[in-house]
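During the reporting period the student researcher (J.K.) took over the structure-prediction task from the postdoctoral fellow and processed the backlog of single-chain submissions. One of the processed entries is reproduced below for the supervisory committee.
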Amino acid sequence: MIKGSTAEKTLCYHCGDDCLTQAYVVDEKHFCCQGCKSVYSVLSASKLSNYYTYNNYPGTNRKQTDKRFDYLSDPEILAKLVDYADDKVAIVTLYIPQIHCSSCLWLLEQLHNLNPAIYHSRVDFLKKTLHLKFDVEKISLQKVVELLFDIGYEPLISLQDVIKEQKKPARDGLVKKIAVAGFCFGNVMLLSFPEYFGISVSEQSFKHFFGLINLVFTLPVVFYSGREYFVSAWHNLRNHVLNIDFPLALGIAVLFVRTAFEVFSHTGAGFADTLCGLVFFLLIGKFVQRKTYHHISFERDYRSFFPVAVQVLEEDKEKPVPLAKLKTGQRIVIRNNEIIPADAILLKGDGLIDFSFVTGESVLVNKTLGEIVYAGGRQAGRTIELEVVKSVSQSYLTQLWNNEAFTRRHNNRTQIFSEKVSKYFTIVLLAIAVTSLVFWLPFDYRRGLAAFTAVLIVACPCALALSTPFTMSAALSIFDRNFFYLKNTRIVEQMAAVDTIAMDKTGTITISEDSNVKVHGDLTDREKQLIYTACSNSIHPLSRMICKYLGNLKKLPVATYAEVPGKGIFATIDGHDLMIGNGALLFGFDSKNESVSCVHVAIDKKHVGYFSFYHEYREGIKEIALLASSYRLYLLSGDQDHEKENLVKFFATPGDMRFNQSPQNKLDFIRKLQDDGQTVMMIGDGLNDSGALKQSNLGVAITDNVNNFSPGCDAILDGRSFRKIPSFLRFSKNTVRVIHCSFGISLTYNVIGLTYAVTGNLSPLIAAILMPLSTVTIISFTTLATHFAAKKCNLL
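J.K. obtained the following C-alpha cells:
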C-alpha cells in the first residue's frame, strides 16, 4: 500500500512531497527523487524501517545530491569541530536543524545499526544536537556527516563552531502554541459568560450558535497546542510506561469529545472553556519551567561547576583564575589528578592523560610536546604546562559530568516522589471513573457517561504535573546561590532520604591554609628543593601544605612521577629517587607513637625526615557534630589515629571513627552500610574518595580552589559552605515536604471536584473555576513555600 496515496496524486513515502514521476519505486513504495529512495533503501537494508511508523512522512526532501564534504578531512577544521580525538575514537557534537519529531530522535540514536563504527549517538532534542562517539580507524568525520546527509539529517557546520557557541534552545513553537491557546481561551471565556449568568428565553437562539463557535475554538487548542501530550502519552504506552502525560492527554480528549457531543446534541454547553484553560495553563507552566531550567543552566555554566579556579602562569608565577575568565592563549598549570578544563596544547612536561571522564575507559594516553589535549582529561603524572586553544566550554564539562559511565550506580538511587505517585494516580483515577460508570449505568446510562467523563475532567492532573518541576527548580537555584552545585534535581530528594553521613578527614573536615607544619630532620637546601618539586606535582592537601611551608623554590627536572592514593608519591627527580607519604605503608614505621599527621620522606632509599601537621578544622564542624542526634556520623580517614582524641568531641562514639582506611576500605564500608539498609551521604575531597563517592547514595566532593572533584560525585560543595551542610539537609527535607503538600493541595481540589463529578451533575462553571484555580494555587504555593523554607534554613 502506497503511503499517503490518493486518486489524484501520489505522495512520496519518505518526505510527503508530490511524486512528479514514477521512476523511483521500491517495494511498491513511491518516492519523489533518488535521494528519498536512497534513504529508504539504507533504512530498509539496516532493518530500521520502523522509522516510518512513528510519524507520517518523517523525512526531509533529499533532492539535493551534492555531497561535497571534503573540507572535513582538513586537520585544522577537524581540530575545531571535535570534542575529543585519539588514535582510536573521536567524539563530536553536531547541530542538526532537521530534528523535529520522535522519528528523528529514534533514527539518530540508531546510527550504530547503520554503521557499527559509530559506538553510540545521543540526541538533545531541545538543542537539536547530536553527540557522537565513533571509531576513527573505521570511519572518518567526513563519512559520518555523509551518512547523516544520506538519511536526511545534514549537520549545520560553520567555522564559528556554532554547535558550542549556541546557548538558546531550538524553537519548537511553544510560544506560538501558548498564543493560540491563550487567544482561544479568552474568546471562549467571553462567549461562555451568557451561559454562566443565564440566557433569556428571547435569546435562546444564540445558545447553540455560541456553543458551535466555542467548539471551533477548541480545534486548534487540541490538535495544535495540545498535540504533544497525545504524542508523549502514545509513545509511553507503546513502551509500557504509565506516566503523568497519559491522564493529561486523556483529560484533554474527554473534554473535547464531551464538548462536541453536548453541542451537537443540544444537551449542554460543553467544557470548551475548561479545555482551553487546561491546555493554556499547562503550556504556561512548561514555558516557566523551561525558562527556570535555562536560567539555572546559565548560572552553572558561568559560576563554575569545575571548582573554582585553574592555575595560570603569568611572569613565571602561578595565579588562580576563575574558569569562566580563562582565555585562549593563557598558559595553565595542571598537576597530578587535576582535570584539564579546556582544549590546550602541551608545552612542558610529559602528558599521561586519563580520558575516562570523556570516553568511559580508564586507559592512560601518552601526550608529547605540541600535541593537543582535550578538555575533560585528567593528568595522571607530574605537573604539565599547557596553552589554552579554546575557551572553556562549561556546558561541555557539565555534559562530561553526566557521562553515562558515571550514571550507572549500584541500584542505590532513590526513586523520586512524582515517579511513585504518577502511576498510582492514573490507576486510581481510571478506577473511580469506571466505578462511577458502572454504578449509574443500571439507573441512568446518560448520567453514568456524564459521571465517567466528569471524573476524568476534574481529576486531570494539571497541578500534579507542575508541582515537582517548579519546586525543584527553585530549590536547585537556592543551592547554587550557596555554592552547592547539584548534578540534577533528583539529588534533592536523595539528600532528603539520607540517614547516615560518612566523611573523610584531610581536606574535608580540615583545612590547609591555617595549619601548622613542622619539619623533623636536618634537610639540606638540595633535599628541600627535591621535596618541593615532587610535592608541587600533587594536589593532595598535605602536599600543598608542604609546598607552602617550603616556599616558592625552583623546580628541578622530573624524570618519572607516580602518586598512589592512600600511600604517597614515587618520583625520580634530577637523578634522585624519592618516596614521600604514609610512613607505615611506605617504610613500615610504627605510627602508634605519632600524635599528629605525618608525611615521611626517603631520598635514594634513605629516610631523611618527616613533616608533621597540626590541622585546623573547618568552620562548622561543631554544627555538623550536632547532626548526631538525627544522623549516624562516621569518619573514614586514610591517616593514623593520632588525632583521635581531638576528634572525640565531634564523633562521640569511638567506633564511628575509622582510621588507616584505604580507598577500597572506604568503598567497602559504604557498601556494608547500604547492605544494612542505611542511606549514605559520603563527603570527601574527590581524591582518595572517588570510589566511596560513587558507591554512596549521595556523593559530595568538597573543594577549595583546586580542581579535584570526582566525576562519580553527585554534588560539588565549595569549602566556604561546609558549615551550611546542616542547613542543606534541612532544606532538602523541607523541599520534599513542599512537594508532598502541593500534592495534598492538588488532591484536595480533586476530591472536591470528584464529589460533584461522581454524581454526574458537574457543571461547566464548576470545572472552569476548579481547573485554573488549582493550577495557580500550586504554582504560587510551591514558589513561596520553597523560598520561605530557604529563609528558615538561613540560605537566603
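The committee noted the following: The domain at 483-510+619-730 is CATH 3.40.50.1000 (Rossmann fold).
J.K. will present the remaining backlog at the next meeting.
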